[in-house]
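Q: What does the assembled structure look like for these inputs?
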Amino acid sequence: VTRADAVALVAAGRPAGALTIACNGMIARELYQHIDSPAQFYMIGAMGLAASIGLGLAIVQPRRPVVVFDGDGNVLMNLGVLASVAASGAPNFFHVVFDNAAHGSTGNQKTVSDRVPLERVAHAAGYRRVQRVGGHAALDAALATFFAADGPAMLLVEVEKGNQPGIGRIEVAPQQLTARLRGVLADT
Amino acid sequence: MSPSQRFLDLLERHGFNFFTGVPCSLFEGVTRILDREPRYGYISAVREDSALGLAAGAYLGGRRPVVLMQNSGLGVSVNALLSLHQIYDIPVLLVVSWRGRDGLDAPEHLLMGKVMQPFLELLNIPYALFDPATLERDIESLTRRMHETMKPVAVLVGKGMLEA
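A:
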């Protein structure tokens, strides 16, 4: 499955009321191009911090499912946060890692996630559930149950390398992304 | 009441209600209270930039965050401060210890200690030096500045201020 297709499938599988933090690079851009919503916060920089932001949000908004769209390069850049996630025990924290074993946004340079299975690192850290899937059908099946039980949980999705040619950037200004997500929560 | 408890009370009076960070002996008194009292919900972060990420998430969720760190951690935090907080308008109060001030400290703290003020100025982070005589006024003014600019501000903690 391509990363863009996997991103779209996960986006459609999110539970009602979910808040989403998307890591910087192609993953955020693919999500934004597929579907935009004020409940989605896209990172354009600060690589490695999506899970930290998602955890902070999950802790202060315990009634909302928080879904982090992450990449293998991003997870590896701040691996320590897996320990923070596990230690928090946040039941509303759902970590979806799109893993192509490459830094897809900078030209597919290799990461080490082909040799270091990130879902096993998360399991060892103490995530309540972890799951690795590859392929369209397996991802569909996983999405039917992944968000239904308590986190912290990681769904690692194996995706193909490669980017959509000519994919656009995030057109919402960063300050606006902050304001609109806060607005979603202020209204409820 | 200890200076550390007075400091935390002051921060709470200014609406700060989310605390995370990485400890330093210079504000050991503060983290001792935060670790002991569950009501603060203090999160012991693994790295200073991750603490800033947690704080950003908490702010998105409606809280007013404080991040505590040693000044060595300020180096770790540059990307988060510039490419997250500053461009996304995410305010945070940084409580940063000032190891290596006046050139009197262990070797690993001397260079960072020496560049602290120009470094913060370069990063466009307004700051005040922790001084019990002016603390209330300084926190008031930093907090106001933080709200006006929607950007990080810092209070620098030297030796002998918050160890108890």
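The longest helix of chain B spans residues 107-122.
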